[in-house]
Design brief:
This protein has 427 residues and is of the alpha/beta class. It is built from 13 helices and 18 strands. It has 2 domains: 107 residues, Urease, subunit C, domain 1 (Roll), CATH 2.30.40.10; 306 residues, Metal-dependent hydrolases (TIM Barrel). The strands form 3 sheets. Strands 1, 2, 3, 4, 5, 16, 17 and 18 form an 8-stranded mixed sheet that branches. Helix 7 runs parallel beside helix 8. The longest helix has 17 residues.
Length: 427
């Protein structure tokens, strides 16, 4: 297919593009930006007037739920939601049933993902069954295409096992995805330890739970030489640990979730379980400081950290509910809200959700340039829409933004030159 995207506001952090331009696509590649290639005859056209055209979004921590938890989400349903949200690549976490700790499970996911609209890459397990006792078959997982390894948010209580896992991953050149949280300090905590937890009578998780585990991990990363990506940072002071580590040359990157970029513990309404996330929503100052760190480049990525749940998982007490927010559908408007509030530039925001996640995976990204793979997103930054269970594409409807009006809507998503989502076709 020969596709022309015309008159769009092209924003590309890699090549510094920020202007109205045309993009020509042939097959899976971009063949022209700004200047029409010789002999190009379009077979399809997208009029992007009034729209932003940017690199497709990349998420490095999506909970697909399948296999094993299809009542919460399926590969097909969540991939469709991702495409409608502007994502071209998503990485699934290893905490499926069975766990992604063998090549057989990766093959199963790859088979079921064969006909979905976005690329799905697997993050394999760091330890067998995510139990934190025996190392997983990391060599085999890398050989079959896993882009990294993780323990899926489960604690590795034995520090010797953790060190051995980092050493093994380092020898294989695998990125280790870590979510810093001390098992003992977090214990049975539910929300951020502070004034709000005291007022609501809910057990708190102190900021030190993140900081202690982060500090330990950095010491072992320095010792082993492992390449690591820290996920879902929630405490402002974490950035200082990371900056010091980077000064020492440690190969680390980091992210915050869109939920922690947009919400704080003060936003928790009564005992609404849709606000129950792990790590917990922290203080207002933590939220502001973390977004500022992304804007400055001290934190690399903003992730969706999408965790769809069925109704029963949330229709219970706060303490009994499953943590997590279904966040793909509202991802773009929440990003644009940060831009509108002046907390981050649009250029940097797009960089943090497209280019930097790819780099964190160790993949080169050429942005919107001649010869680059045509992974693109077109969105209307001004279009308003109502978030309802019906308008959400994800099977999980567990969002604290239900019945709120959002501004910003994806109109087209293109993966390797193929139009995989069009708002007009889904109206």
């Amino acid at each position: 297919m020969k596709l022309l995207i015309k008159n769009g506001h092209v924003i590309d952090p890699v090549n510094g593009l920020n202007n109205i331009s045309n993009i020509w696509i042939e097959g899976s590649k971009i063949v022209g930006v700004g200047k029409k290639p010789d002999g190009f005859i379009k077979s399809r056209e997208i009029d992007a007037s009034g729209l932003v055209v940017c690199p497709g979004f990349v998420d490095i921590g999506t909970h697909l739920r399948e296999p094993g938890l299809e009542h919460k989400g399926t590969i097909a349903s969540e991939a469709a939601a991702a495409a409608a949200a502007g994502f071209t690549t998503i990485c699934c976490t290893p905490n499926t049933i069975p766990v992604i700790d063998t090549p057989a499970v990766v093959e199963l996911i790859n088979q079921r993902a064969r006909d979905v609209p976005v690329r799905i890459k697997c993050i394999g397990a760091l330890t067998a069954g995510l139990q934190g006792k025996v190392l997983a078959e990391m060599h085999a997982l890398k050989a079959i295409g896993c882009v990294g390894v993780s323990n899926g948010g489960n604690a590795i209580k034995d520090t010797a096992v953790f060190r051995n896992a980092l050493e093994y991953a380092a020898t294989l050149g695998l990125t280790v995805f870590l979510r810093p949280e001390d098992h003992w300090l977090a214990a049975e905590g539910l929300i951020h330890e502070g004034l709000i937890s005291t007022k609501k009578g809910l057990a708190g998780i102190p900021a030190s739970a993140e900081l202690v585990d982060l500090a330990k991990s950095l010491v072992l990363i320095e010792q082993t030489g492992a390449r690591a990506h820290f996920q879902c940072l929630s405490v402002a002071r974490s950035k200082h640990y990371l900056l010091q580590a980077r000064k020492r040359g440690l190969p680390i990157t980091s992210d915050i979730s869109i939920s922690h970029a947009s919400l704080c513990d003060e936003d928790i309404l009564d005992f609404d379980t849709n606000f129950h996330v792990r790590p917990p929503l922290r203080s207002r100052s933590d939220r502001r400081s973390l977004v500022a760190a992304v804007a400055k480049g001290d934190i690399d990525v903003i992730t969706a950290h999408h965790e769809p749940h069925d109704r029963d998982s949330k229709a219970t007490t706060f303490a009994s509910s499953s943590p997590g927010i279904s966040s793909l559908d509202t991802f773009l408007p929440l990003i644009l809200s940060l831009v509108e509030k002046g907390e981050i530039s649009l250029m940097k925001a797009i960089d943090s959700i497209s280019i930097q996640p790819a780099l964190a995976l160790g993949q080169k990204h050429n942005g919107i340039s001649k010869g680059a793979v045509a992974d693109l997103c077109c969105f209307d930054p001004k279009k308003e829409w109502l978030v309802t269970a019906h308008t959400m594409k994800s099977l999980g409807k567990n969002s604290p933004f239900i019945n709120q009006v959002m501004k910003g809507k994806v109109t087209s998503t293109i993966v390797a030159g193929k139009l995989v989502y069009s708002e007009k076709a889904h109206q």
